[in-house]
User: Which sequence fits this backbone?
């Protein structure tokens, strides 16, 4: 095993670990990208995701395995479900992890390729922009410029029109620049379209996105895991 694999959180999912090199040249690049992604450290390591019978989950699984194609096609994706804890965020995080792995293989640079943010943090930073302008400006910079933007729980912006307008303008700029975005929501596309007025927001989150609805519930996932464990 390469020497710095001992300190690498990603070693179990890396194709380099059997290399005969003394030091992994990708380690520092991967570390830099994960740090700049805004993902919390517990989300850096790949979790064991349960592949359910939900056809939309299986489509996302297939997409997550071909992130180079996703990268080349500049897609927007909205994953939504009115059920909680059924894998929306977990699968988006998996797509981020695979995307960064693909990106470092293709580009090999320290420039941040992914940026994850929960919509509640966007609201909070917007509210505190006068007191903490640097933090707000950093958020806007990464949201505008990163190759892949991920906004989790975007339905939180319902009823927050000023924030939705800022986000809508950013998404419109990103789309014009052929940059991809992923969104999750507990509300349906129809609700988002009805309750958020900004035309750019609605267009980029709902109208031009590929939409996937997860219908499986947490209870069904737990039961499938239990049955699998008995076999």
Assistant:
């Amino acid at each position: 095993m390469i020497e710095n694999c001992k300190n690498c959180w990603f070693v179990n999912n890396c194709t380099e670990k059997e290399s005969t090199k003394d030091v992994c040249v990708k380690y520092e690049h991967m570390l830099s990208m994960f740090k700049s992604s805004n993902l919390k450290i517990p989300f850096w390591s790949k979790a064991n995701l349960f592949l359910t019978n939900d056809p939309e989950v299986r489509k996302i699984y297939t997409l997550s395995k071909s992130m180079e194609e996703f990268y080349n096609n500049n897609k927007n994706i909205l994953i939504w479900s009115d059920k909680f804890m059924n894998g929306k965020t977990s699968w988006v995080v998996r797509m981020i992890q695979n995307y960064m792995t693909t990106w470092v293989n293709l580009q090999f640079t320290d420039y941040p390729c992914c940026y994850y943010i929960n919509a509640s943090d966007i609201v909070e930073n917007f509210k505190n922009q006068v007191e903490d302008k640097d933090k707000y400006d950093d958020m806007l910079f990464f949201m505008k410029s990163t190759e892949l933007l991920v906004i989790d729980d975007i339905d939180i912006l319902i009823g927050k029109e000023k924030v939705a307008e800022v986000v809508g303008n950013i998404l419109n700029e990103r789309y014009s620049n052929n940059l991809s975005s992923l969104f999750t929501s507990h509300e349906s596309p129809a609700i988002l379209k009805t309750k958020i007025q900004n035309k750019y927001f609605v267009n980029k989150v709902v109208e031009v996105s590929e939409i996937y609805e997860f219908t499986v519930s947490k209870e069904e996932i737990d039961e499938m895991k239990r049955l699998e464990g008995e076999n």
